[in-house]
């Protein structure tokens, strides 16, 4: 989703934050922002995979059939 904001509104917001002393702002191109978000999602997937591997190695596993049955009954 792309949002267009008038530059004057952005300037006023920045000025207000500067006056209050709490301005923490980073401006990056949209493509770099999207790449950053994608990297964060990849890191989350990696973390989830590591957690699943730890569970598997510790013996805390269930069959897919049991997992699927539990998942489908939770939806109801």
Protein model, in words:
The protein is mostly helical. The protein has helices spanning 7-20, 30-58, 64-75. It has a domain at 26-75. It has 3 helices and no strands. The chain is elongated and about 60 Å long. The mean pLDDT is 83.
Q: What is the string of SSEs from the N terminus onward?
A: HHH
The computed structural class is: mainly alpha
Termini separation (Å)? 32 Å
β-strand number: 0
Spans where pLDDT lies below 50 across 5 or more residues: none
- Work out the helix count: 3
Mass-distribution shape = elongated
Chain-averaged pLDDT = 83
The helical percent reads: over 70%
Q: DSSP strand (E) fraction?
A: under 5%
Task: Indicate the radius of gyration in whole angstroms.
Answer: 22 Å
The biggest beta sheet reads: none
Topology of helices and strands:
Layout (H helix, E strand, L loop, with lengths): L6 H14 L9 H29 L5 H12 L1
Quick gist of this model?
The protein is mainly alpha-helical. The chain is built from three helices and no strands.
Features:
76 residues; mainly alpha; 0% strand; elongated
């Amino acid at each position: 989703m792309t949002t267009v904001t008038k530059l004057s509104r952005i300037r006023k917001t920045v000025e207000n934050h500067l006056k209050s002393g709490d301005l923490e702002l980073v401006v990056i191109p949209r493509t770099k922002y999207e790449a950053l978000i994608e990297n964060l999602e990849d890191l989350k997937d990696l973390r989830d995979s590591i957690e699943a591997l730890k569970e598997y190695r510790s013996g805390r596993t269930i069959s897919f059939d049991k997992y699927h049955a539990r998942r489908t009954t939770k939806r109801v």
